[in-house]
Inverse folding.
């Protein structure tokens, strides 16, 4: 059983390796245990030049890169970190399948030098694969700090493969690693160390005979088969009955349990190897980690620390991120102006369709791009938390609460990002569910994050609260912002008890790794990769939906009868202008309709540009620009001189009536549009919640991006009185009471995720069915809940605020009730 | 073959108590996971601390620190040191 007997003796089944040709492309798989600094090494080897994708069929990130070193081309794939190759987690499955199915030329095993013994457990299993292998002994600096003295040469001798010491965070060892990979790929393979499984060896050999010829070593397949690995049994066609009969025989003859013995033998070998090549004077986790954990995981201090971290995320990403958008927004507005500059101008009330379409598309894109600074900061903070090692600790602190509701300790961060307390975004929230080991809890988290307080819902809330609850705004806002977390818990609990009941769950065994300062480069890289994923996947789909919505809002268009009336009013306004202009000696400048349109457009552009100027110099430059553009019309725009002043005054009136008429067209258009018809068709269904077609249209259009709800509702209600704010018009409209408003609030709290969220739900759940479920379940729930409370409120004559209070108390009562009912047992069972 | 000493469960240890693993009674995926993480007979464990809400516990084994739920810790029999 000791390693000295077993090292480098049996040539066995090592694939025959005659002096090798240099392959054109060398495929390298980078493997290692979690927290060994694997991604730092990978980043060091390939820098910015990496490609992120998913492994086929699953949501595990696959980082890969192509590179050249001394004239040879390499493809590097970063396998997910795994402790072993059992079927425990998605990551292990993916890593194993990759090594089994892909033609891997060289395995690079990254090993944490400060945790050598444990890392060797995986190394031995990788060696059994019989592929050329290189070990990268990473974190040599940490090992030194912990007084672990490793004899690298001795380790290489024991394992009989090349060992390269490196310090990933300091970018040390890149050349040596690449040289070692090149050497391993071309040199004739030596016989590496192999674990001797003592009593099991005859059985391993017996199974080896059953294994068909395969890329991978037969010994590895035989060992895995003996361990009862389903994937390997399937691939090799060995009958499971054969394995269980061997197991029974072993049990009867030696009273041995296969799994337990394999693990024990590997650990014993690791122990022997470790003691032969390393001296450790102080067998302790870093004292820094210990003293930090004394506070961070302390019974009393842990919650304030956690609250502090959440507050910091909120402050940095949401508050400061929003401030950054103040600076990036003008940039986007500038781009919009450039694009709109290419579009044909409006002719008074006739806005060309292409311009309207361009404006709609540009606005839809900008609404999403506007969030990029916030996303970037959020993703960077998540990368920092991951790198530091706080994530598993967060899970450790809160697991007990979440477990009760079928979630997982690791659900904390996604919910926080989604806006658990203060407002966030479901997109980064859903994307952060990636790390949750328990498949059922992961799906439940994906389904519940969209219920959190989306930042874009806030304008809608403020609109309604401003209109109906101006005096009790803070109380209402408190209910709205705190009720969401309870709703999420209820839904998670219901889902895991019903639809998700049969889904895989996993034991909560999670490493609490030593704290680690992540590298700046690694954090930036991760944040940029995720932002890019968002742009690529989300923005494209949202734009497609925006096109559909545009068509649905634009057609069939304003009925001819109304249009004639509007045109008549427009003509009247133009005639008034012409009559007033005719009294001046500058009439020749605006005698033709096209001249009037040009003047109107110039007036509009000049006014909006002038509002952006901040200093006298800027204004002067702007004036000069317009002066050069069209000196004659500009005089009229500025209204200098008595004749020009008269025309300018008439122009203002004309502009105002034009705006009113355009608004009227827009309203008529929305009201007769397909979306309007759809909204009306839904009225029989939504009347129980008190929603009329206008509210329905607002909710329907909020689907593309939540901001649209306010814009649409606003534009329906703005009766062309431009100086009146939307909340005033809604309150003055009289068709709604505070009870209607609360029904709308309840619907919005529960309402469906926006398209962007749906796209990431699809990405993370890897299923269209779940995506559809995540869309229609909240809509149904929203309609049911708002109808219920609306009906109750009208029956019992509650006031709006009473209705909200009762809703809030009911949700909390239901949460507590569900917390009292113990969840069913996990579907992995504890034996005797 | 159960002796009195073997009756202690990992979940029953108090903070800062050391023990040696006797037997892993889990089955299936949980057993495989526990074995991979080093919960093998003869290994020494240290119960580091309870979580703030008591439930998961932090355990040191094979020179690393793990968070384990008490239900999972309850399927490992230990001999306290």
């Amino acid at each position: 059983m000791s390693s000295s007997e077993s090292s480098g003796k049996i040539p066995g089944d090592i694939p025959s390796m005659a002096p090798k040709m240099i392959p054109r492309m060398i495929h390298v798989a980078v493997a290692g245990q979690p927290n060994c600094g694997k991604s730092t090494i990978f980043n060091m080897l390939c820098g910015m030049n990496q490609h992120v994708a998913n492994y086929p069929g699953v949501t595990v990130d696959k980082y890969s890169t192509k590179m050249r070193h001394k004239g040879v081309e390499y493809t590097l794939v970063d396998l997910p970190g795994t402790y072993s190759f059992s079927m425990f987690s998605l990551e292990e499955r993916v890593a194993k399948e990759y090594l089994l199915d892909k033609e891997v030329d060289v395995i690079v095993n990254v090993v944490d030098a400060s945790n050598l013994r444990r890392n060797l457990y995986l190394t031995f299993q990788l060696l059994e694969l019989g592929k050329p292998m290189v070990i990268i002994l990473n974190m040599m600096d940490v090992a030194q700090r912990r007084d672990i003295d490793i004899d690298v040469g001795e380790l290489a001798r024991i394992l009989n493969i090349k060992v390269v010491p490196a310090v990933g965070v300091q970018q040390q060892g890149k050349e040596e690693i690449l040289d070692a990979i090149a050497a391993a790929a071309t040199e004739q393979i030596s016989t590496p160390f192999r674990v001797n499984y003592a009593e099991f060896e005859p059985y391993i050999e017996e199974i080896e005979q059953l294994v068909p010829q395969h890329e991978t070593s037969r010994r590895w397949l035989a060992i895995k088969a003996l361990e009862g690995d389903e994937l390997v049994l399937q691939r090799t066609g060995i009958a499971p009955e054969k394995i269980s009969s061997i197991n029974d025989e072993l049990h009867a003859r030696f009273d041995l349990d296969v799994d337990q013995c394999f693990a024990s033998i590997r650990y014993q070998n690791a122990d022997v190897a470790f003691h032969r090549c390393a001296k450790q004077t102080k067998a302790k986790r870093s004292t820094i980690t210990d003293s930090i954990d004394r506070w961070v995981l302390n019974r009393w201090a842990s919650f304030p620390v956690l609250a502090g971290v959440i507050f910091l995320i909120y402050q940095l990403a949401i508050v400061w991120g929003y401030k950054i958008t103040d600076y990036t927004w003008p940039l986007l507005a500038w781009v919009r102006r450039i694009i709109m500059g290419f579009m044909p101008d409006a002719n008074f009330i006739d806005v060309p369709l292409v311009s309207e379409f361009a404006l709609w598309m540009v606005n839809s894109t900008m609404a999403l791009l506007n969030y990029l600074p916030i996303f970037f900061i959020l993703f960077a903070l998540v990368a920092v938390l991951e790198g530091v090692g706080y994530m598993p600790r967060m899970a450790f602190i809160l697991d007990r609460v979440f477990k009760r509701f079928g979630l997982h300790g690791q659900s904390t961060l996604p919910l926080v990002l989604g806006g658990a307390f203060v407002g966030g975004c479901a997109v980064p929230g859903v994307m952060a569910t990636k790390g949750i080991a328990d498949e059922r809890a992961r799906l439940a988290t994906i389904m519940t994050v969209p219920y959190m307080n989306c930042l874009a819902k806030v304008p809608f809330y403020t609109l309604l609260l401003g209109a109906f609850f101006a005096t009790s705004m803070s109380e209402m806002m408190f209910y709205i912002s705190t009720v969401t977390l309870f709703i999420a818990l209820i839904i998670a609990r219901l889902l895991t008890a019903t639809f998700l009941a049969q889904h895989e769950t996993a034991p909560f065994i999670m490493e609490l790794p030593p704290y680690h300062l992540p590298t700046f480069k690694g954090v930036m890289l991760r944040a940029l990769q995720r932002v890019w994923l968002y742009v690529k996947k989300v923005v494209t789909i949202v734009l497609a939906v925006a096109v559909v919505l545009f068509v649905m809002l634009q057609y069939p268009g304003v009925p001819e009868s109304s249009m004639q009336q509007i045109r008549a009013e427009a003509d009247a306004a133009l005639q008034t202008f012409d009559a007033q202009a005719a009294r001046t000696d500058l009439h020749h400048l605006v005698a033709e309709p096209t001249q009037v349109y040009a003047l109107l457009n110039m007036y509009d552009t000049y006014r909006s540009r002038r509002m952006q100027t901040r200093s006298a110099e800027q204004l002067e430059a702007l004036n000069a620009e317009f002066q050069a553009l069209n000196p004659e019309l500009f005089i009229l725009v500025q209204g200098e001189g008595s004749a020009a002043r008269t025309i300018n005054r008439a122009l203002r009136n004309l502009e105002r009536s034009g705006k009113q008429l355009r608004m009227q067209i827009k309203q008529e258009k929305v009201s007769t549009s397909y979306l309007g018809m759809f909204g009306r068709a839904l009225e029989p269904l939504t009347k129980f919640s008190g929603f009329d077609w206008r509210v329905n249209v607002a909710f329907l259009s909020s689907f593309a991006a939540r901001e649209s709800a306010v814009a649409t509702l606003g534009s329906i209600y703005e009766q062309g009185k431009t100086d009146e704010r939307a909340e005033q018009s809604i309150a003055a409209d009289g068709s709604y009471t505070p009870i209607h408003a609360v029904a709308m609030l309840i619907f919005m709290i529960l309402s469906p995720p926006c398209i962007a969220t749906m796209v990431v739900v699809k990405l993370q759940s890897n299923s269209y069915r779940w995506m559809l479920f995540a869309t229609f379940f909240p809509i149904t729930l929203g309609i049911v809940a708002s109808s219920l409370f609306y009906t109750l409120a009208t029956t019992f004559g509650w006031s709006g605020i009473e209705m909200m209070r009762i809703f809030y108390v009911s949700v909390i009562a239901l949460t507590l009730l569900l917390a009292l009912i113990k969840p069913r047992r996990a579907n992995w069972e504890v034996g005797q | 073959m159960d002796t009195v000493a073997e009756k202690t469960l990992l979940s029953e240890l108090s903070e800062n108590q050391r023990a040696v693993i006797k037997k892993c009674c889990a089955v299936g995926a949980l057993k495989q996971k526990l074995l991979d993480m080093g919960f093998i007979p003869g290994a020494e464990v240290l119960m580091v601390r309870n979580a703030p809400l008591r439930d998961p516990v932090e355990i040191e084994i094979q020179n690393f620190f793990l968070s384990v739920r008490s239900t999972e810790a309850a399927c490992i029999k230990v001999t306290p040191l």
Notes: The longest helix of chain B spans residues 28-36. The interface with chain A takes residues 24-38, 40-43, 49-56, 58, 60, 62-69, 71-72, 74-75 of chain B (CB under 8 Å). Chain B has two helices and five strands. The CA atoms of residues 16 and 48 of chain B lie 5 Å apart.
